[in-house]
UniProtKB/TrEMBL annotation:
Topological category with respect to the lipid bilayer: Multi-pass membrane protein
Keywords from the named record: Cell membrane, Membrane, Transmembrane, Transmembrane helix
Gene name per UniProt: wzx
Domain of life: Bacteria
Subcellular localization, as worded in the UniProt entry: Cell membrane
UniProt-recorded name of the protein: Putative O-antigen transporter
Native species: Escherichia coli
Coiled coil: none
Any Pfam family matching the protein: Polysacc_synt
InterPro entries named among the record's database cross-references: Poly_Biosynth_Transport, Polysacc_synth
An annotated GO cellular component: plasma membrane
């Protein structure tokens, strides 16, 4: 089987489980915790995801690219491994201090801060589990399996230890500590060539170089996630935790639907990067075919989501206090994102990054996040969860349009390329 197809299938399976499992537990958690505590829980989760975003610092793409080009050189791969792990550890201490200083300044975040403390093991897993190493070697199957195993463990634990709104701490511990399962399995039994950790490379000169290589990817990632992850945080500040719970519940349904398409883009990135260096003609054919099939599949998926999900979502959420009409509008607003977001990911990760268009890659999310913050706060304050949905949709349209503009302006995709 073609290695790209094989890796894509593994990642699709992992992503389906990653989104299906939260979707399975979603009605249970919203019913047991209520939308308020569910909103508190997801605010804490988003803060943890921000910490992880800073710690990852774009290494999932930059380190993947380096390893995919040097995977036959044990010493080179070990040096990359050492540099990335060391950089993550340094970033962890810096972002942790900054995060808790900020949380101290928000009086309504006492419950959130307490949950963040309990969820820190998830950050440890992010530091030490080298998903980028699996991606660079194009051996995703094992990583997919152990990640899914960790997710599956959460289902019986949530059913046993989460019974009412007072069990929100139990839910936070279960959802975060489960990420330690793949980490433990990796260090006990791994199917990758064992890498050596060079303590001699734990120096700031190597740290600076490692961060510099990933800086552009990090700028792009932090900007993109600033307008996606920040929306629940904005809602929690200008509105209330009920609206956070309401928005996040609807967004999880959208994320479950779109997640499969996003992970395919992640799976094909190493192949796109390698093809661009090896055969520009094959690279162009590869990217064009991916975009073509993605648009077709996502368009049909978006139409199905628009018409059927408003009927299914109230059943999934199983809450008597649901405003079904408002939920229906939110879901319909999210349906175009099923086309826009995967297309943006492909244009960014498989077109701009392999061709070293770092300036454009970083510029697009910076522009969109500035624009997004200008209207998202107002919309969230005035319309709550509905306003958050309007803001995200508008931002995704702008982001995709900018990526398409840079792609065609610089002729980054060509039907008849010349070397």
């Amino acid at each position: 089987m073609n290695i790209v197809l094989k890796n894509s299938m593994y990642l699709v399976f992992m992503q389906m489980c990653n989104y299906a499992i939260p979707l399975i537990t979603l009605p249970y958690l919203t019913r047991c915790l209520g939308f308020y505590q569910y909103g508190v829980l997801n605010t804490a989760i988003n803060i943890i995801l921000y910490i992880i975003l800073v710690i990852d610092f774009g290494f999932n793409l930059s380190a993947t690219r380096e390893i995919s080009q040097k995977k036959n050189n044990f010493v080179a791969v070990s040096k990359i491994f050492t540099d990335v792990i060391f950089a993550k550890i340094i970033l962890f201490f810096g972002v942790l201090v900054f995060t808790f200083l900020i949380l101290k300044l928000i009086p309504d975040y006492q419950d959130v801060t307490r949950l963040v403390y309990f969820m820190l093991p998830q950050v440890l897993s992010s530091i030490l589990f080298p998903l980028w190493l699996y991606q660079g070697y194009e051996k995703i199957g094992y990583a997919a399996f152990i990640n899914v195993l960790g997710k599956c463990i959460t289902i019986p634990l949530l059913l046993i230890f989460v019974q009412n709104s007072k069990d929100v701490t139990n839910a936070a511990i279960i959802l975060s500590w489960s990420s330690l399962v793949p980490l433990l399995i990796y260090y006990i039994r791994s199917n990758l060539p064992r890498t050596k950790f060079y303590t001699s490379r734990c120096r700031f000169k190597y740290l600076n170089r490692t961060l510099a290589n990933a800086l552009v990817v990090f700028i792009g990632s932090i900007a993109v996630n600033l307008y996606t992850l920040s929306t629940p945080l904005v809602l929690s500040i200008v509105s209330d935790f009920d609206q956070v719970g309401y928005f996040v519940a609807a967004d999880k349904i959208r994320a479950a639907f779109i997640g499969v398409f996003l992970i395919v883009g992640q799976a094909i990135y190493p192949r796109a990067s390698a093809l661009y260096n090896e055969d520009i003609i094959a690279y162009n054919k590869f990217v064009i075919s991916i975009i073509f099939y993605q648009i077709i599949v996502c368009t049909f998926s978006a139409i199905a989501f628009y018409y059927f999900m408003p009927e299914v979502a109230p059943i999934i959420l199983s809450q008597n206090k649901l405003n079904v009409e408002e939920l229906s509008v939110i879901i319909k607003l999210m349906s175009p994102m099923i086309i826009l977001i995967p297309l943006s990911v492909i244009l960014a990760n498989c077109v701009l990054l392999p061709q070293r268009k770092n300036k454009q890659y970083a510029l697009v999310p910076i522009i969109t996040v500035i624009i997004h913050m200008s209207y998202s706060i107002i919309l969230c304050e005035k319309l709550g969860a509905l306003g958050a949905s309007y803001a995200i949709l508008l931002t995704e349209i702008i982001s995709c349009a900018l990526l398409a503009y840079f792609t065609f302006k610089d002729r980054l995709i060509q039907l008849n390329p010349a070397r």
